[in-house]
Structure formats: structure tokens, C-alpha cells
Amino acid sequence: MRRYSVSDTPRHEWNVAADQRRHRAKVEEAIRQHLADMVADEKIVMSDGQKTLAVPIPEFSEFRIRFERQGQESVGHRLDTPGEGDGPGTPGQGNQGTKEGGSTPGIDVEETLITLEDVQRAVFDNLALPDLDLNKPAPGAGMDYTPVTVARTGIRSQWDKRRTLKNYLLRRQKAGGEVTGGLIADDLRFRLSEPVHQEQGGAVVIAMMDTSGSMGSFEKYLAKSFFFWTQAFLRQKYPAVDMVFLAHDVRAREVDEDSFFHRGASGGTVSSSVYRLALEVVETRYPPDRFNVYAFHFTDGGNLTSDNGLAVETGSRLSQMVTLFGYGEIHDTERNPSPLYQEFMRLNNVGVVILRTKEDIFKAMLAFFGPKGEVRHA
């Protein structure tokens, strides 16, 4: 039987495979160019994870015969002078963004559907938890073995040589030293053990969000979008990382994931309350000597004036206990940063960002989780 070779593959199959590779490369390039827009897409944040998106990509230019009709007669060509109501100029020409005709050719663009998984893969490609201490593995990752009993049978790795030798010597003593030969089955002893998970550390992300009345729909959307993408990023690249959700107005409370993303806004703002609660969570449940702790707080910057000093002091204490403390301030107008922002900007272990547009969500992700050396003040 003749062996199959690549030359046996029909040439049209080669062309199909090449077109598929070209299409995939075009799609990936389009995703990279539109990352900021897709991260800010409200339809993604509100979806159930099964969302598909339409991304514009340049149409493929294939070799084909084209008829040049400009300046030539053709079927239906009129010989007299165009009158009123006739379209101006040359077919296929126009000025984009104006009502007048023009001579600039358009660009062939088509839209292709991509899945949320494709977007996540592109967004998370270069993101990582900063300064992650690998000596603090995930909970239960380590394994220890506790001896349970001793048996006459077992596998070689469980062989208890000391007890085996003791049994051999006892048998030889009982026989008056007349025992010849080596070990027999009755001499063998094996340690039977059961696995026990070691109490080890790991990593935790503490999500803190301002839910006071000053947080409008725009501010809430940007804050929730950041935490939505942060949660998706952690689940994909660090599935063993814990997340703690804290919401606050004048008082702070720990809530579940669903309540965190669907909570309304009301009340005043006392930021020190959520920092105190975060400190309590760290001290009682996630000691820094065993856990990589990351804390992120998003707010509109409006805080009770009399609380600013305590908020800075408490936030500073929190920043000293965690691997990274990220502070995000959302501005729907061009205004100066808040006193909290200005004070936190002076601290070494605090990364601060200002979000003014939906596209800034992706910039905040890069500022906090981007390549090592990325600027933490954006």
C-alpha cells in the first residue's frame, strides 16, 4: 500500500486551511484593537457568560476580475447631460461623515461574531497578580500523611524496616538463635497512613465598593465593571483565589457576590468603615504571613470631610498589611481628585487610578494587573 503524503491533499483543501488561518489572525488582531471598547461593553457585564460580540474586521481581498466602468459606455449608460436630482460624480466615491459626494474610496469591512471566552483570553493574556509570593500556595495544595496503623501487608514505599527487623530478631530469639535464612512474610510490617491536607495559605482579593447615594448609574457601572472583569480574570488564571465582597455607605458590611453586583445606592459615605472591616477580615481570616492579600476600593471620591483623616490612617494601615492596595476614583466630570486620592498617591504600596470613561476600565486593569513595572498611578 502506497504511503499517504502531503502532496495527496487536494489543493482546494490547502486554500481552505490557509483562509481559516488568515481569518483567525484577522479576528485576533481586531480583538486586540478593540479591547478597551469590548471591556466597556455593558452587554458583557450584564450577560450570563454566554454572550457573543460582533467585531469589525477588514474584508479579505481575493484575486478576481473586476470591470472598470469609469469613463466607458455600458448597459443603461445615458449620453445626455445629467440633470437635477442625479447623483453626483463617480460610483463608489463619497466623503464619510458629510452629505456631499467625494473621491475617497471606502474600506471593505465585515463583522464577525466572537465569544466572551475569546475576549477574556485576549484581555487576560498579559495580566497577572503582582508580586505573588509562590511560597504561599493555595489552601489544601500541600499534603501530609499521618500514620494510622501497622499491617502485615502493604506496598514497598510503606515498608517499616525498623518493625520488620524487630520481628525478625524476636522470631530468631524464640527459636534459640537457630533461625537460618532471611526475612519471611510474617516478619514484614508496613505503615498504613491516610492523607491529611496541610493548613496552608494562598491568595485573596478583597473587593470594596462605595454604594452611597452619590454613586450614580455611571459610577456604579464603572465600579461593577472593574470587579466583574477582575473576578473573571481570577477565575480563569487563579481558580483557587478567594474573593471577599465588601459594600459600604456610612457603614460597611460583607455581602455575597450576587448582592455585591446588584446592590442599590443610598446613604452617605464614610470610607474608613470599609477599611476597618477589611483590616478585620485580614487579621481574622487571611493572615499576611500565609496569604497574598489584594484589596481594591472603588468610589466617586466623595467622603465625609470629618472622616478623611481617619480614612487615610486606616487605609495606610491596610496598605501595610496587603500585597497591593488599589484605590480607584470615578469622575463623571473634569474635576480635581479627592483628598483621599491625593493622600493615597503619596503612599508606596497604594496604586491609584482615575476613571472618567468606560474605556478607562481596561486601563485600570492594566495599571493593577499589568506587566511588572507597569505604572501603578494612572
Tell me about this structure.
The protein is of the alpha/beta class and 378 residues long. The chain has three domains: 17-59 and 109-125; 143-197, no CATH class; 202-369, von Willebrand factor, type A domain (Rossmann fold). It is 34% helix and 19% strand. The protein is built from eleven helices and ten strands. β6 and β7 (252-255) form a beta hairpin. The longest helix is centred in the N-terminal third of the chain and has 23 residues, at 11-33.
- How many domains, in number, for the residues? 3
Number of strands: 10
Task: Determine Rg (CA atoms, Å).
Answer: 33 Å
Strand content: 15-25%
CATH class of the largest domain reads: Alpha Beta
- What can be said about the biggest beta sheet? 6 strands, mixed
Overall form: elongated
CATH superfamily of the largest domain: von Willebrand factor, type A domain
Structural class: alpha/beta
Look up the CATH topology of the largest domain: Rossmann fold
CATH architecture of the largest domain: 3-Layer(aba) Sandwich
Q: From N to C, what is the helix and strand string?
A: HHHEEHEHEEHEEHHEHEHEH
Ranges where pLDDT stays below 50 over 5 or more residues in a row are 45-50, 57-63, 85-94
